[in-house]
Amino acid sequence: MAKTIEEINAKIRSGKVVVFTAEEIIEVVREKGIKQAAREVDVVTTGTFSPMCSSGAFFNIKQQKLKMKFGGGFATLNGVPAYAGLAAADIYVGATAIPDGDPRNGNGRPGKFRYGGAHVIEDLVAGKKVLLKSGAYGTDCYPLKAREQTIGLEDMNDAFLFNPRNCYQNYNVAVNLSDKPIYTYMGKLKPKLGNAYYCSAGQLSPLLNDPYFRTIGIGTRVFFCGAEGYVAWPGTQHNPTAPRLENGTPQTPAGTIALIGDMRQMSGEWLRAVSFTGYGVTLSVAVGVPIPIIDEDMLRSVSVTDDQLKAPVVDYSEYYPLGQGEAKLGEVTYQALKSGSIRIKDQKVPTGSFSSYALARKVAHHLKQVIEDGDFLLTQFQAPLPGAATEKEAA
Amino acid sequence: MKQTKLVFIFPEDTVEEPVTYNLIADYGVRVNILRASIDPGKQGRMVVELGGEEIQISQALNYLESLGVVVAPLAQKIRHLEDRCTGCTACVPHCPTRALDVDRDSWKVSFDSEKCIVCFSCLETCVYHAMSVEEQFA
């Protein structure tokens, strides 16, 4: 009963497509079984909303009459340094960039990191203007040597997010074995296993629903912070060889995707700047990937539940930063993590998350709605991600 | 019985006085210490919930005044800015009184200001600036 993307798109166009979220599908499969559900269901939508540090934006600033070469010079936006080592008017602002002179960690105080690259991106998406300050060495063709001006997205020819690594397929659960509180990119960890943080939408997470990248590849169209975005490339650190459970899902951080999308289509509802006390600034990003139910195996993958997904518990006081001590303190299910506490070394440890399940759910429902409305068509990827099951099938 | 949340500010020379013991033993009030930072030789600050009959509390406050302890109503209040909250739950394991809690079906984070002891933990852990502190002039 294999279904093609074209057949599914025809159903989307005719308004007959059957779509469920990756959470709803669990109940559908329980009721109808894999065979019947695979015949009836065309698409399952996934979603995630989480800090993703490897994010940033390319801007092309409109030239004035008197032209300037930013390339090789410098540019800041609201004091946040942008990368200007590109052509005359292209710059890149990374989510984690912070202004010089920002009060950071020091004198025993964890920095607050109130404003950085992610905030610049958030402000621009919200329609606000930011202050551009730039300098250049001047050439015969680009004589202007300094430019200071408030600019918004309307003052740019192009503005797109290009995130080298998003949507980690699974992630560590962070704890602290030491006797001091520590401030990490996984939040403030209380001493002696005082708390544990996780960061994944679990059963709603895009890549956990397509563990072998059978439908998600280079060129896949996705929901990206309110825009129609695309998988541009395998994400940095993409690792398809991670150890896996019998259901195919990885037991450690594994696959990743690089995403690209037009900032002008994005909205502040789906993109938020965040400040990690004692760590830095980053950007929370909403991503939803539709998964075509091409066969029964695909349906089996998307009906995975939180109790069938496991994450490794890692000590961030010694093992993570120094590579010393026990690599893995245990393995816990997302069901346990979402219950509010887990057991590590015979100790009850309260849990919290940085990934918002509430918003992951909202993303998946939103994507379901736009597909049902005929406003979002599925794509056949142009090339598979490294390690994809399709490569083997094709061989 | 009356209950009230107060801030005690201790001058340097009273820090070594067993004030809490005296309040309980001599004035019969209930002292629940919500937060304290006291270093010998330095000014101390303690947030307490004081319980007892009106007369006991007023006598206890007179005693504190005689020591030079400044007593002020708990003047800060934490607010949960729901429109900024993503329901991520990062604040939940850090909240010592469960004033911040999450419904695990809707994944909506709720805040009960009655339970809040103004410890500022949530201000440090909320990455979305969804918790704020307000000065209150009571």
Mean pLDDT of chain A: 96
For the record, the count of structural domains of chain B works out to 2
Structural class of chain B: alpha+beta
Spatial separation of the terminal alpha carbons of chain A:
22 Å
Quaternary class? heterodimer
Low-confidence stretches of chain A: none
Helicity range of chain A: 10-25%
- SSE sequence of chain B, one letter per element: EHEEHEEEEHE
Strand order of the largest sheet of chain B: 2-3-1-4
The low-confidence runs of chain B, each spanning 5 or more residues with pLDDT under 50, are none
* CATH class identity of the largest domain in chain B: Alpha Beta
Overall 3D shape of chain A: globular
Shape of chain B: elongated
Helix-residue proportion of chain B: 10-25%
How many structural domains of chain A?
A: 2
Mean pLDDT of chain B, to the nearest integer, reads 88
List strands and helices in order, with pairings:
The complex is a heterodimer of chains A (395) and B (138).
Chain A (H helix, E strand, L loop, with lengths): L4 H9 L5 E3 L2 H17 L2 E3 L2 E4 L4 E6 L12 E4 L2 E3 L7 E5 L22 H9 L4 E6 L10 E6 L4 E11 L6 E3 L6 E3 L2 E3 L6 E3 L7 H4 L11 E4 L2 E8 L22 E6 L8 E6 L3 E9 L1 E3 L3 H7 L7 E6 L3 H4 L7 E4 H6 L1 E4 L2 E7 L3 H16 L16 H6 L1
Parallel strand pairs in A: 1-2, 11-21, 14-24
Antiparallel strand pairs in A: 2-20, 3-19, 4-7, 4-10, 5-6, 5-8, 8-9, 10-17, 12-13, 15-16, 15-19, 16-17, 18-19, 21-22, 23-24
Helix pairs in contact in A: 2-5
Chain B lengths: L1 E9 L8 H9 L2 E8 L6 E9 L1 H14 L2 E4 L2 E5 L19 E4 L4 E4 L9 H5 L5 E5 L3
Antiparallel strand pairs in B: 1-3, 1-4, 2-3, 5-8, 6-7
Helix pairs in contact in B: 1-2
